Amino acid sequence: MSYDDYGQQYLTEDEIVEMIHINPKLDLSKVLMDEPKCFNTYNRMLFAGFPTIKRYEKPACTVEAFDKANQSQWHMPDRYKDFDIMGWLLEQCKTDEQVNRVAMELELYNDRNLTMLLCFLKYMIDTFRENNVVWGVGRGSSVASYVLYLIGVHKVDSLLYELDVTEFLRDV
What we know:
By secondary structure, the chain is mainly alpha-helical. 48% of the residues lie in helices and 5% in strands. It contains nine helices and four strands, in the order ββαβαβααααααα. It is elongated and about 65 Å long.
């Protein structure tokens, strides 16, 4: 199984055959393959109702443009897609310093069109907690984000340690 620079999965003929042998009832409607024409023709002759495998095609745009176009297609429940993450984060604040930091960070996330990412992270962390999944304390520059700390992505209070969030969002 391979992934292109855009994160799209595509399979070789051998991989598809192996998958069919493992699970003959496998839904192949979303499978992408480099050159499926001969594969499809051959299998339709042998097996009635064999699904058509779609040809893998690299998107005709940059990776950045592809990511931006697909940000609205996060796989999460609607209640998180419609979740007021900004309001929720501000409600978590107990001091003026926290409110100011969250407001400043939210502006940075919003400027970079990353608000939906925050909703997804809230969903992911809630799901981890509900299912007793253990995740790390935090690493790298992401610990500079107080917003991520409030969501629960990491356990490092960036206000306590006076970490600059621009270290995290400088290249985004």
